[in-house]
Amino acid sequence: GIVLAFIFEYMDPTFKSSQDIESELNLRFLGSIPRRNMIERSLISDPQKKSNYAKHYQSLFDQLYFSIKDRKIKTIMFTAATSEEETSTVMTNLGFFMSQKGDLRVLLVDANFRNPSLHKLLKVENSMGFADVLEKRVPLREITKEIHDNLHAVPAGKNELNPLMLLDPAKIKEALQDIQGKYDIILIDCPNLKSYKDPVVLSLSADTTIVVVNENQTRRKVLKMGLKSLQERNVNILGSVLNNKTFPIPRFVYERV
To answer: Which of 28, 49, 226, 237 has its Cβ near the most Cβ atoms within 10 Å?
Structure first.
């Protein structure tokens, strides 16, 4: 039984830990987000409320804060190997922490025209959004939704064109430049690396990229292939976040080790 357990572990093609990410991908590990229990909600609308789930986002924010300041990072793109990594949730929760705990002016942008979800998470209207801005039908500032004083969001909007026709780096930079002085940081959600070329195009408009990895779900080969397309363009990848981390032993033991 022990031998079989080692064999199955060896043959498992998914990421299990931060050590896997750093050794396999040679990416900086930024932090982990635990799998939510039945009581915890997907969004932490109030970072002041203490929970294990919120505590890990606080740690992730702490890791990012000085990198953002030191490197003068203004725009961060979030992507993943597939659509299962809950990239939108990770990005939105981080936005709440940056805006409330870090006192930063944050803008969330949904550039995932394939499967938009930011408007569902934040419960805002999606009749017009970033797609309309890139088609020059409306200025970005006019469709920006206020979530609270320091946090604003731009939904994806409804688009019938091939998204790659919209994602012109020059158009994106022009659109963001219109409101860039109003925000300290802009977080951009985009489609997955496996199915689409959108992240490659979008990454050219961002200062850096964060890759979200799902424990026991993201396949190593799939993510490596996706990252290759970014690395070929010399895209600046800030690091990775391990999402849905499980704890075989109680969390308080990990936190005291």
So the answer is: 226
CA distance 76 to 91: 10
pLDDT in tens, 135-160: 989 999 899 999 998 999 999 998 87
pTM for the full predicted model: 0.89
Cα distances from 257 to residues 249, 251, 252, in angstroms, run 12, 10, 9
- Enter the tokens of residue 256: 């005291």
The residue behind tokens 């070329």 is 197
Instruction: Report d(CA 48, CA 99) in Å as an integer.
Output: 12
| CB within 8 Å of 162: residues ≥ 6 apart | none
Render pLDDT for 217-234 as a digit per residue (tens, 0 to 9): 788 888 888 899 899 999
Q: Contact at 8 Å (CB) between 166 and 35?
A: no
